[in-house]
Amino acid sequence: MLRRVVRQSKFRHVFGQAVRNDQCYDDIRVSRVTWDSSFCAVNPKFVAIIIEASGGGAFLVLPLTKTGRIDKVYPTVCGHTGPVLDIDWCPHNDLVIASGSEDCTVMVWQIPENGLESPLSEPVVVLEGHSKRVGIVSWHPTARNVLLSAGCDNQIIIWNVGTGEAMINLEDMHPDVIFSVSWSRNGSLLCTACKDKKVRVIDPRKKKIVAEKDKAHEGARPMRAIFLADGNIFTTGFSRMSERQLALWKSDNMDEPICVQEMDSSNGVLLPFYDPDTNIVYLCGKGDSSIRYFEITDEAPFVHYLNTFSTKEPQRGMGYMPKRGLDVNKCEIARFYKLHERKCEPIIMTVPRKSDLFQDDLYPDTAGPDPSLEAEEWFAGKNGGPILISLKDGYVSTKNRDLKVVKANVLETKPATKAENISTVQKHVSQHASQPTVKMEDKLEEVLREFKSLRDRVILQDRRIARLEEQVAKVAM
């Protein structure tokens, strides 16, 4: 009887390599805060790193090209009064980043096109609503200007950043600290891991728990839970004997896991990074010196171990580059930004191929930077999957729009606090004086937004027609 010994997979030989020293970011004082976030966020333009800062919280924003030694006086983003705990780049605008801090606020920042030339202390908008430190911030994957934050007050708030309002407040769902929050692929559901050892699937707009699993992992140490592209849930945690585990669950029925695997007895929290295009999960343990990667398939054992990339130095945090920021000419399928104590080191994952042609099996169409919904549409109950783009010619960015925050309705409904001084009142009066102009500007802004939306749609249809013509030509041949 013939038996297949080795499972076929194009990702069996993913090759990881750290870049040369001169391509690292050196002399960075990485934050020492005892919080299990990744401390690093990356997009195709910038790498942002939470750093040690006296008298408040700060993070560095470096253009990807600014490698080498970073000067001690390099400007930082420094508006928080307490240490920064988490940062997240907006998926729809490469110049906008959100940060959550121990000072109980969330701030949204607009970074200049060419990076910072002076310290940035004025955020575009400050979101106040948490009563304890904010440890998690996460942008909606498909709706523009929708941001989620979770704090140590055990509540999740979903904001409309365009107006600065808290639209949804999920309280009384979590009796203890929330370890992780993950959006589903189209952003209609949330998946959370909590200190009470429960994993919950939540419909945020209906404010109800769709499914939950008690003691998803028996151990007391922090868990992580993320949504996969097919709607299943992948979790990492600890067993009763403090061994690290990973598990796969069906989101509609969490009674029994699809599979559970024990890994090792290290005590570092496993941070999962997921690529929905290739269905690969990368696990980076805090304090580990390795990145393990697994492929998730429909056949047993469902979570297939691929390989481990190891270095000598332990990692303090990790940034993960979106697919559109990768070099497709080098068959690069993932890029990590590993934080050491004093530097940030890019690690490139490639699938070696002999051909110089575009490898379309490695690069299916991936989520692009265009949102499929406006914030108001999503809050009204509409859903939309990510708008996909092809990476065939390498991704070329279109110009980002500035983040506009319409604060008028916030000022009208918000009770006056001691922080709002006379200058705010004067500003408010002047706003009323120039209302006709503001209305005209709003209309113009709306027309421009519609025009941009139509233009983007035409570009997408052009690309789609070109692809279809290519396919027809191949069939005709």
General description of the model:
The chain is built from four helices and 32 strands. A hairpin with a 5-residue loop joins β21 (233-238) and β22. The chain has helices at 375-379, 408-413, 422-433, 435-476, and strands at residues 15-18, 25-26, 40-42, 46-51, 57-63, 68-69, 77-80, 84-89, 96-101, 105-110, 125-128, 134-139, 146-151, 156-160, 165-170, 178-183, 190-194, 199-203, 208-213, 224-227, 233-238, 244-249, 259-262, 270-275, 280-285, 290-296, 303-310, 317-320, 332-339, 343-350, 366-367, 388-389. Strands 1, 2, 6, 28, 29 and 30 form a six-stranded mixed sheet that branches. The longest helix has 42 residues, at 435-476. 38% of the residues are buried.
Summarize this structure briefly:
The protein has 477 residues and is mostly beta strands. It is built from 4 helices and 32 strands.
Fill in the keyword field for this structure:
477 residues; cytoskeleton; Coronin; 4-stranded antiparallel β-sheet; mainly beta; WD40_repeat_dom_sf; 35% strand
Topology of this structure?
Layout: E1 15-18, E2 25-26, E3 40-42, E4 46-51, E5 57-63, E6 68-69, E7 77-80, E8 84-89, E9 96-101, E10 105-110, E11 125-128, E12 134-139, E13 146-151, E14 156-160, E15 165-170, E16 178-183, E17 190-194, E18 199-203, E19 208-213, E20 224-227, E21 233-238, E22 244-249, E23 259-262, E24 270-275, E25 280-285, E26 290-296, E27 303-310, E28 317-320, E29 332-339, E30 343-350, E31 366-367, H1 375-379, E32 388-389, H2 408-413, H3 422-433, H4 435-476
Parallel strand pairs: 2-6
Antiparallel strand pairs: 1-30, 2-30, 3-4, 4-5, 5-7, 8-9, 9-10, 10-11, 12-13, 13-14, 14-15, 16-17, 17-18, 18-19, 20-21, 21-22, 22-23, 24-25, 25-26, 26-27, 28-29, 29-30, 31-32
